[in-house]
Design brief:
alpha/beta, D-Maltodextrin-Binding Protein, domain 2, four-stranded mixed sheet, elongated, cell membrane, membrane
């Protein structure tokens, strides 16, 4: 009950603060609008052509089917380039020259991708998987009923082998789609400010000692504050999501629950960061200045302002892996556009491990001293 009381106190203080609400809600909405319109007439933020290399050592039926598959997907902006040397193909993927490498051998296809591939890599993999599933299904039927292939003529491969989801030419990532996600995850980082001031406010208003003099325990205070700030930032995030979806027409995919889970994990991380800084730095303005210096750099590496891969710097790409926002944005984009959950565990693990570290650090500092 005491935890709930402290939690509600934090929620009221944050949601009733007009300055905080203006920064956390109006600012990202304005930025989404400005950046969305600025890039809406260009192709800078769109996916662009997906480039895949392949080596064909497959049997006759697989090779024929794959040839038709290549011709059809070319109309969708997917470019396949044949390469004879398998080792060279793998080398090109390691250098991230292409979005994927398909190796046809006998009746099988092996798809190689770089561990740090972006959403285009995931789309390419989904397409190959779709082709393989259809091919296996049709060959399985043909093995039981040889007349199947003969009766179907060319099996209408144009239709049967190109059952691809999330690659329709009409369904492209617009600038509004991109910046609705990146501006949201960026502004959530600034939720760390609320964590700082939840601690600093008790210090400046001289209310901290009175709270400690009450029957409430320190762990109840800490839990209540973390939960209160987390809930407040999540409410602000919800407003941004619904505004971007229904006003700007941003695509948030079909699995909004998973997106919410990823977002909440980021919020817990930044709140933990803010609260710990509130204990470490006794001056709220100094803590705010530190965050203002760190957050833009973290956001830049996470692709908040512009896709990191489009910058063409392998050094920045490698450096971006140290930004938790990189994993958060990657996970969200893959869930929305490809239905791929591969990066979700990584994003959750990164955010929650950092959250646990900062919350434990806060508990240690709070146990040693008062506000």
């Amino acid at each position: 009950m005491r935890i709930l009381t402290i939690m509600l106190k934090e929620i009221k203080e944050i949601l009733y603060d007009k300055n905080v609400m203006a920064i956390m809600i109006l600012l990202p909405i304005v930025l989404i609008g400005i950046l969305g319109f600025a890039f809406s007439s260009t192709s800078d933020i769109k996916l662009g052509d997906i480039k895949v290399i392949y080596t064909d050592e497959g049997d006759t039926i697989l090779s024929q089917g794959f040839d038709i598959f290549i011709k059809e997907t070319d109309k969708m902006g997917v470019k396949f380039v044949e390469i004879k040397d398998v080792s060279k193909g793998i080398s090109e993927i390691e250098k991230r020259t292409y979005d994927g490498y398909a190796f046809l051998k006998g009746k099988d296809i092996t798809f190689y991708k770089n561990a740090h591939g972006d959403i285009k890599t995931e789309i390419a993999e989904s397409m190959i998987d779709s082709f393989v599933d259809t091919f296996k299904g049709m060959t399985a039927i043909a093995s039981q009923n040889p007349a199947f292939l003969k009766n179907r003529g060319d099996i209408n491969l144009n239709r049967e082998f190109v059952k691809i989801t999330s690659i329709d030419r009409k369904v492209k990532q617009t600038s509004f789609d991109y910046y609705s996600v990146t501006m949201l995850t960026l502004i959530i980082l600034y939720g760390a400010m609320s964590g700082v001031f939840s601690i600093d406010m008790e210090r400046t208003k001289k209310t901290g000692r009175r709270i400690l003099a009450s029957p409430v325990k320190k762990y109840e205070i800490l839990i209540g504050k973390v939960l209160g700030v987390t809930f407040s930032v999540f409410i602000q995030a919800l407003i941004i999501i619904f505004f971007s979806k229904y006003i700007f027409g941003a695509n948030w995919g079909n699995d909004i629950i998973t997106v919410f889970v990823i977002i909440i994990s980021e919020i817990i991380f930044v709140v933990g960061l803010g609260v710990s800084l509130g204990f470490i730095i006794k001056n709220g303005a100094m803590a705010q200045g530190l965050l203002n210096g760190i957050i833009p750099f973290i956001a830049f590496l996470g692709g908040s302002y512009y896709p990191v891969k489009e910058m063409g710097s392998q050094f920045i790409e490698r450096l971006s892996n140290f930004s938790p926002i990189t994993w958060t944005n990657t996970a969200i984009f893959n869930v929305i556009w490809v239905g791929n959950y591969q990066y979700v565990p990584t994003a959750l693990m990164v955010n929650l491990i950092l959250a646990a570290f900062f919350i434990v650090l806060s508990a240690y500092l709070f146990r040693r001293e008062a506000f």
